[in-house]
Design goal:
By secondary structure, the chain is of the alpha/beta class. It is built from ten helices and 14 strands. The structure holds adenosine-5'-diphosphate and magnesium ion. Magnesium ion binds next to helix 1.
Length: about 325
């Protein structure tokens, strides 16, 4: 082993600048497709980073560019400070990728598959950790079974083991929860967290907000090939500190009463008024007191709590549809 203090670790696990991907048209889709639209992304070393976006946003395209499965049209990519164009082999050695599509030869056993992968990356026999990896992913007892007998969840975990055979400092998982049931999902997350604790930087894509919120310390939101937000999960979630009170009044209003101006009022109909407040700063009692002070007749009242879904919708709605 190289002594740690003789190697300076990069601040960024992955650095992406001005990335563009245009897929050429084909028979079924004759028009060229702009899948990645000038993306800049800095993924710090040591964390779990989530790339969140709806289907078709460009997540797999971005991941597959990192994995060198898709050729970028423009831009610069560095993995572990190694430029993808200047040194593709070393860039590949720094990253392990679990693709969205699981193509596993049905007649290989997990043990064969990992040995083959280790061979491809030039990992010497003495340094191979085949059984250790399989056991870590609860596949120890399946080491000699044909892959075709494995369930979807087992296959996903096998692909994680395969991505880790060369011990890369960066692990990328593209929609890792697809086809994995709840219990195994927890196991997979536990393993991902463990790897992360041991120093592996994790990048995962998902279209599940909950997953990103639970697992990631930083989240980038991608839509139509553009990154529209990138912040620590806590910052993103703190935007959730907003509640809405909807009141129905007994007479038509033409505008919100001035006394309620501090609650970001929105007239949602002649008799419907929406008010907003931050629960961390304002007690709901204060909002109610202010409403009462206006002497409006309150016919009905309800509250609405926002969640990450709302932020996501708000952010993605602002973006025009690309062709
Ligand atoms: P995501 O993984 O976020 O669902 P993808 O990266 O798979 O998104 O796709 C982004 C866009 O690029 C989509 O509009 C998709 O149809 C298109 N696309 C993906 N792969 C190809 C391809 N090989 N040829 C043409 N278009 C593609
Ligand atoms: Mg995808």
């Amino acid at each position: 082993m190289t002594p740690k203090n003789s190697v300076s670790l990069p601040d960024l696990a992955v650095s992406i600048k001005g990335l563009v991907k245009i897929y050429a048209g084909n028979k079924s889709q004759p028009a060229p497709k702009l899948a990645i639209d000038h993306v800049d992304l800095a993924i710090p070393r040591g964390g779990i980073f989530g790339l969140l976006g709806p289907n078709g946003a460009g997540k797999s395209t971005l991941i597959n560019i990192l994995a060198q499965l898709v050729r970028k049209t423009e831009g610069h990519v560095k993995i572990w400070d190694i430029d993808l164009d200047a040194d593709p082999r070393h860039a590949a050695a720094a990253i392990g990728v679990v693709p969205q599509e699981l193509n596993i030869d049905p007649f290989f056993t997990p043990r064969d598959l990992l040995d083959l992968q280790a061979g491809m990356y030039g990992v010497p026999k003495a340094e191979r950790r085949t059984m250790e990896l399989l056991e870590a992913l609860s596949l120890g007892d399946k080491a000699g079974s044909y892959a075709r007998t494995l369930s979807g969840g087992m296959r996903r975990r096998l692909m994680v083991a395969k991505a880790m055979v060369h011990n890369p400092p960066v692990l990328v998982l593209d929609e890792p929860t697809a086809g994995v049931d709840v219990e195994l999902r927890q196991q997979l997350w536990a393993y991902v967290r463990e790897l992360n604790k041991s120093g592996v930087t994790v990048l995962l894509t998902t279209h599940y907000l909950e997953e990103a919120e639970e697992l990631c310390d930083q989240i980038a939101i991608i839509n139509h090939g553009k990154v529209i937000a990138c912040e620590p999960t806590s910052t993103l979630v703190s935007r959730l500190d907003r509640k809405e009170i909807v009141i129905t009044v007994g007479a038509d209003l033409t505008e919100a009463p001035a006394a309620l101006a501090g609650f970001d009022p929105v007239l949602a109909g002649p008799r419907r008024l929406k008010l907003h407040y931050r629960p961390s700063e304002t007690k709901v009692g204060a909002v109610l007191d202010a409403i009462r002070a206006t002497h409006l007749e309150i016919v009905d009242l309800s509250t609405v709590e926002s969640d990450l879904e709302d932020i996501f919708l708000e952010l993605t709605r602002r973006q025009p549809q690309s062709a």
